[in-house]
Design goal:
The chain is of the alpha+beta class and 789 residues long. The protein has 3 domains: 2-43 and 281-448 and 658-786, no CATH class; 54-265, no CATH class; 469-641, no CATH class.
Length: 789
């Protein structure tokens, strides 16, 4: 019997080649897109979740209470890891680490290169599942001069991991470190990307401020004992810092809390001190999109199967007359749907293999099909069964319910319930398509808004260089000679990139400040000509060598002025960390963080220390390429022991919105495919309607109806469904997009024309799709449609 059913299923597929091809194409596209999304989601969920001790690993976080606000972040005191391990028996291992990448110059013989890495605590390799090719977790970082390097670095400098063990490497042309371990290159599923690790003691020795409990910057991770009670530990951690910060006054209020390490990648956003989402929102969003695309493909299959149901009705009638039970008929039609789904899956897998390289380039992933893993086959099996059963269920139940007497008499008519169900499916398809169309428009406008927004400074033609080596120790000489190079306009420096200032402090005082209110200020130290380099407007003046007291003076932005409250700020006193000075200028507010954040109060101070800062070089418009070439030649001669490296500020800014750019591109593709598959379903329903109304159309033509009037007659019912879908989808799309935009402090506005344009586009596409079948039916010779069978 099964063999017979397979034969019948195959014959039906072959006999109806056009409809079978459309069915398979719709299902294949839906399954291919869903499979890509599921692979992406699977990869996202695996990030940082491959460590053997994962459930015991936690990031130590801070909640800071300032000015009626709660700010949560991962910056902690540099000595915190030591104290936590010492004070709490629940903590098995603890390690401080630099949350930023250090780009240091490595020298071995004649080999010279920049490598990216971090300083970490001695327990690091005991906590994380990082395979060691040489050395042991106990000795890898147990001495201040120890150095752990990746396989890539070991092979580049020494040829192999074993050859590197015990060798010396000079870092920044200052000190030799001994290679105490070689670890495997960090996997793609890790947010920690580094090629070397140095001991935490070495970092603290380099940075005295890390010994101060009122200074944050480093990060802290801990590993708890398997039997530790996390809730009790968090309760004790809440007030832990108070005994180390007694000198900060009665308003000091900083709480520690724990975030599971495996959740940090997906749950990175905090609002008012509480976790409020992150990349998990995109995982959920695309998970819903994957399900929607599969549903649209299944609805498409249902409509096409229904459109051909009249051709199968007599077959059902004969089978019922000769004794076939309904359950067997349902099984037959579901089986046919599953067979078609399997064929569609083969096409979908071929499409995925072709698309994956471009998909990986777009998303920045390294996703591949994993035929050796059972989870991959379970995913395919589950997708095939769900798709086949959902797609085949309605046609199977509908056809198996037909009355054999009515069918064999030729009086097959479809009731109101069946008609409403099919129309509901069309409405549902176009609601989903409308949501994706509106989403595409809003995401595109927001990404364009971000890319073109005036940040308050000119990020074009602005380059960041390293201050390593001679540049940091002989900056004035470097600056004077660099300014003579063709294309170089301004040279200055600052702590960090202007796109990501993150240092903040509450240690700002001024006359009249309310002693019961603590206000958090972002701060940055800069060099002369800083404002000229950024092209930022200022009321007052920039730091100048003509004023010897500027080393204790300050620039503030308008957001800071608003919090301070001075009416005439120029020349007014301001104290930072006990160092008194005056305000010499008020900057126009400029964006120094992501547009997700509102502009914070900013204090700018002059720093004579250049080492460790970013060198700002502004080039003449149109001469950036020439300036870079001359800077590289000059740098190699001036600073021969440090490789020349640079970054463009506008590219660093674009990196802040990589996720939004990827989401926008993916949404474009998925919206197009959703519309295309929906149109296939609409094509099927219009074919079904034309088939049901064949004799009516023939009569109308005999009585003189024009082709246009018949096309209008057949189209109006479908256009009503599309209009209903637009009415339903518009408020849903507004709510969804409003929620998405809510995460931005600066954003585009939702306008009525977006929904109108999306609706008009849906109507046009639907009309074009319907017209094909309507015109075909209207042009049919009425003699053929009225002829008796």
């Amino acid at each position: 019997m099964l063999r017979n059913y397979l034969k019948i299923a195959w014959r039906n597929i072959v006999r109806n080649k056009t409809f079978s091809a459309i069915n398979m194409l719709g299902l294949a596209l839906g399954m291919a897109c869903s499979l890509l999304i599921f692979l992406w989601i699977q990869d996202e969920l695996r990030v940082d979740n491959y460590h053997a001790n994962g459930p015991q690993l936690y990031n130590v976080m801070e909640r800071q209470f300032y000015d009626g606000k709660v700010v949560a972040h991962g910056a902690t005191p540099g000595l915190l890891a030591y104290e936590l391990k010492k004070q709490f028996p629940e903590v098995l291992y603890a390690a401080g680490f630099t949350g930023w990448d250090a780009h240091l110059t490595f020298t071995v013989g004649n080999k010279l290169n920049k490598e990216a890495g971090r300083w970490v605590g001695a327990d690091w390799f005991k906590m994380f599942s990082i395979p060691l090719l040489a050395g042991t977790p106990q000795t890898a970082l147990n001495e201040p001069n120890n150095l752990a390097i990746s396989r890539k670095v070991a092979e580049n400098y020494f040829g192999s991991a074993q050859a590197a063990l015990g060798k010396s490497m000079r870092i920044d042309n200052q000190k030799d470190y001994r290679v105490s371990a070689v670890f495997e290159n960090m996997p793609e599923q890790s947010t920690d990307k580094y090629d070397f690790l140095l001991n935490w003691e070495d970092c603290i020795r380099r940075n005295d401020w890390m010994k101060q409990w009122d200074n944050n910057g480093p990060r802290t991770r801990i590993m708890l004992r398997p039997d530790a009670n996390v809730v009790n530990l968090e309760a004790k951690l809440k007030t832990f810092l108070k005994k180390y910060n007694n000198g900060l006054g009665p308003n000091f209020n900083i709480e520690l809390f724990l975030q599971p390490y495996g959740e940090a990648y997906l749950y990175s956003n905090f609002e008012n001190g509480q976790q409020s989402g992150g990349r998990i929102e995109y995982v959920r969003l695309f998970g819903v999109v994957a399900v929607f695309l599969l549903l649209i493909a299944c609805i498409n299959f249902m409509n096409l199967a229904t459109a051909r149901s009249a051709r199968r009705a007599r077959e059902v009638g004969v089978r019922k007359v000769v004794g076939a039970m309904r359950s067997l008929l349902v099984g037959q039609f579901v089986g046919e749907a599953l067979l078609l789904t399997v064929l569609a899956l083969l096409i979908a897998l071929s499409l995925v293999v072709l698309i994956l390289p471009a998909f990986n380039t777009l998303t920045g992933k390294h996703i591949g099909l994993q035929p050796t893993q059972a989870s991959f086959w379970l995913m395919l099996l589950g997708m095939t069964l769900v798709t086949g059963i959902v797609a085949g269920s309605y046609p199977a139940l509908f056809l198996s319910s037909l009355n054999p007497v009515r069918v064999l008499k030729g009086s097959l008519k479809f009731g109101a319930g069946a008609r409403l169900f099919r129309q509901g499916l069309v409405v549902f398809q176009f609601v989903l398509s409308m949501l994706l169309i509106v989403g595409t428009m809003v995401v595109y406008r927001q990404v364009n808004y971000v890319q073109t927004k005036n940040l308050g400074y000119d990020r074009e033609n602005l380059i960041l260089l390293s201050s390593d080596g001679e540049v940091g120790t002989k900056f004035e000489t470097f600056k004077n000679e660099a300014l003579q190079l063709p294309g170089v306009q301004v040279v200055s420096y600052m702590d960090e990139s202007p796109t990501g200032l993150g240092n903040n402090t509450g240690g700002i005082q001024w006359p009249g400040k309310d002693p019961n209110v603590d206000i958090l200020f972002t701060h940055v130290s800069v060099g002369y000509d800083f404002l000229k380099a950024l092209k930022t407007k200022v009321q007052g003046r920039d730091f100048s060598k003509e004023f010897g007291t500027d080393s204790s003076n300050y620039l503030i932005n308008k957001a800071a002025l608003k919090r301070i409250g001075y009416q005439n700020p120029i020349g007014q006193p301001l104290t930072m960390w006990g160092k008194s000075g005056k305000i010499i200028g008020v900057l126009d507010d400029f964006h120094f963080q992501s547009l997700h954040e509102s502009i914070q109060p900013l204090i700018v101070r002059l720093s004579p220390e250049v080492s460790g800062k970013s060198i700002l070089v502004r080039t003449q418009p149109g001469q950036t390429k020439q300036a870079l070439a001359s800077l590289e030649s000059f740098s190699k001669a001036f600073n021969p022991k440090v490789p020349f490296a640079y970054k463009f500020v506008d590219e660093e800014y674009q990196k802040l919105y990589r996720s939004e750019t990827v989401v926008g591109s993916l949404t474009n593709y998925f919206a197009f495919l959703a519309i295309f598959i929906s149109c296939l379903g609409l094509f099927g329903l219009s074919a079904f309607t034309a088939e049901q109304r064949t004799k009516e159309i023939g009569v109308r033509k005999v009585l003189g109806a024009s082709v246009g009037s018949i096309v209008g007659l057949l189209s109006q019912d479908f256009l009503k469904l599309v209009l209903l879908a637009i009415v339903i989808a518009s408020p849903l799309a507004w709510y969804a997009m409003n929620q998405w935009l809510h995460s931005y402090a600066y954003k585009t506005e939702l306008s009525w024309w977006m929904f109108a344009l999306a609706g008009l586009l849906a109507i046009v596409i639907a009309f074009v799709t319907i017209s094909f079948q309507s015109i075909k039916a209207a042009l049919t010779n009425p003699v053929r449609s009225l002829r008796s069978e």
